Amino acid sequence: MLFNQRSCVRLILFVVGWPPMVPAKAGTITKLGGRVWRELDKAILISATRQIRDFEKYRKDVQDENARRKRRSLDQPPLLEVVRPSRWNESPAFNPYLVRKRRASIAHAITEKLKSGTYVPQRPASFSVPKPSGGERRVNTYSIADEVISKRLYQSLMGKNAAKLSAHSFAYRNDRTPHDAISYIYNDMKNEHRLFIAEFDFSKFFDLISHEYIWQTFSHLGIISSPLERSLIRTFLAHPPSSANEAGNEKNEEVGLPQGTSISLFLANVAATPIDRSLERLGVGFSRYADDTLIWSDSYEKICTASRILQEAAHEIGSPINFEKSPGIRILSKPEARSSEIEETKSVNYLGHTLGLNSVRMRETAVDRIKKRVQTLIYTNLLMEPLRDNQNMNAITSNDRDYVTYVWQLRRYLYGPLSENDVRRFQHGGIPAMSFQGVMSFFPLVDHDKDLVELDVWIATQTWLALKRRQRLLAKRVTRVPRTWGLSRSKLIRLKVVSGTTGEEIDLRLPSLRRIAGVIRMAVDTHGLASVSDGSDLYLYESD
Q1: 288 — phi, psi (to 5°)?
Q2: How many CB atoms lie within 10 A of CB 89?
Q3: Residue 153 CA to its chain's centroid (Å)
Q4: C-beta of residue 177 within 8 angstroms of C-beta of residue 534
Q5: Are 262 and 154 a contacting pair, CB within 8 Å?
Q6: Which residue blocks in 475-512 are alpha helix, DSSP H?
Q7: Considering only Cβ atoms within 10 Å of each terminal Cβ, which end of the chain, N or C, has fewer?
Q8: Which of 264, 217, 233 is closest to 36 using CA atoms?
Q9: pLDDT score, position 130
Q10: What's the confidence (pLDDT) of residue 35?
């Protein structure tokens, strides 16, 4: 799912822009495009401030972790480094501190260029990020001011044209989320005994989509747009990304969307809309998230027709089907069903979930990432310094300060800002309208409690084993035996202690994925999917 990983990376970047423009008549643009530059300095301020806030939070988290490491260690421990984004060094336009300071002059200059039809975005910064499946991917990010323009262009076009997009298209929309896609798929499938499933991914969708096809689709769908908006789209489409030039490659300027900018999200949805319309007319069930399409039907004839529609559309768009990553047509059946006449599966992976005919589960890669994060918290807090024979024994009080820190960090990872008392109170009482955080907010529809119970048991067991190992490593040096040592696993799960300093209770009960998942499901039943994460970060848990 190449496109999904790019969108994942886009979500964790700080935004921005690049090159040439086909000027429209200045007078026409002034009449129809005022909303693009209205209060531009305020929008630039908001965008720059958001990036500064994110960076400052990241820096504080690093400093806090380093302080904890120094407290635990007798000498200099391995410390984390605060890394400034490399793009800040490429141009002042990428540095949010400088942009915030100069926002008035930046806004004035861009406004004049927009009015005269001479606006040209700056060249995007380009860098590499690792792929979960191995290798690296080049990613572009646009200057702060250029991304503000791109985002306003996207919002304007979506506001005028949302009704022209399919209800089965769930990517990059204010009225749809990945959770809506999962909910729709599950509810459409759950009463079936078996279905024909077709799964197809386009190959390098962003890189290969034809500009000519985009403009033909604009005309065919009757996309509403002003002269300025069409001119700006041409501008963002006009130049190759910096990664192509840096690699010394010639890029066909008639193909490819500018990755890393908001307007490309609208163009991707427009390009795929004719496929949606064809599938709707065919009468099959389907869900599309950008180029990631899942189709189902109880008719083998229809599923074959749907497959042909996708392959014909891929040729028109200019982006071929990636058959290596596309399972194609299979039968989706219940676990207890007998073998079928064609290739069979009991589940399909889609948007970070594993879907069966009667279940919604976290994808195995998501479970693996949760385990890896928990193991990191255990090692950093409980084992790193003892294994280096460098533990500061002053931190080993009767309550073991390092263990307290571990439980608090684990709870924040699983629950967000909620305490154990909050979660248990919500289990037995009304849940207010609120936004849930923590890892399970990405999976509000998961209903396979057996998996969650197994993961809770795994976390408790790993914690208990780490404490036993910590005790073996430190027992000869300790002067006060911590209350956490020598407990059974069941007692450790329910542990509460009293602070020797303040006399107040310290809640060290281990957090539970099953518990918070149940609370989030109740919140969704009460307040809808808006009460949880919009699901964009699901791609942090994808592996393809």
Answers
A1: -125, 130
A2: 11
A3: 23
A4: yes
A5: yes
A6: 489-493
A7: C
A8: 233
A9: 66
A10: 61
Neighbours of 468 (CB within 10 A): 13
Query: Which pLDDT does position 25 carry in this prediction?
Result: 42
Paired sense of beta strands 194-201 and 328-333, if any: antiparallel
* Angstrom distance (rounded) from CA 440 to CA 314: 35
**Rounded Cα gap, residues 436 and 428, in angstroms:** 17
1, 132 in Cβ contact below 8 A? Answer: no
CA distances from 216 to 223, 270, 317, 336 (A): 10, 10, 10, 48
| pTM recorded for the entire structure | 0.84
What H or E segment, with its residue span, contains residue 286?
A: strand 285-289
**CA pair distance 278, 286, nearest whole angstrom:** 11
- Helix or strand (DSSP H, E) at 315: helix 300-317
For residues 117 and 104, give the distance between their C-alpha atoms in angstroms, rounded to a whole number: 20
- Return the number of other C-beta atoms located less than 10 Å from residue 534's C-beta: 17
Q: Quote the DSSP letter at residue 429.
A: S
Give the alpha-carbon dihedral of 258, 263, 269, 272, to 10 degrees.
-40
Q: At what angle do helices 449-474 and 401-415 cross, to 10 degrees?
A: 160
Length of the chain: 544
What distances in angstroms separate CA 371 from CA 332, 455, 457, 461, 538, one per listed residue? 29, 8, 12, 12, 16
Judge contact between 453 and 447, C-beta under 8 A: no
- pLDDT below 70 — which residues of the chain? 1-37, 129-137, 239-253, 337-341, 534-544
175, 178, 184, 186: CA torsion to nearest 10: -160
What pLDDT is stored for residue 7 in this prediction? 37
Tokens of 83: 């890394």
Two tokens, residue 363: 């994808």
How far apart CA 258 and CA 264 sit, in angstroms, is: 6
Distance CA 336, CA 340 (A): 12
Report the C-alpha gap between 170 and 177 in whole angstroms: 6
Instruction: Output Rg (C-alpha) for the chain, integer angstroms.
Output: 26
Distance CA 233, CA 238 (A): 9
> Which two structure tokens, joined as six digits, stand for 72?
């635990």
Tokens for 321? 């089907």
Neighbouring CB atoms inside 10 A of 93's CB total 22
Say how far residue 28 (Cα) sits from the centre of its chain: 39
Sheet harboring 328-333: ordered strands across?
285-289, 292-297, 194-201, 328-333, 344-345
Q: What is the pLDDT of residue 38?
A: 74
| DSSP output for 61-88 | HHHHHHHHHHHHBSS----------GGG
| pLDDT at site 306 | 94
Residues contacting 439, CB < 8 A, separation 6+: 370, 373, 413, 414, 513
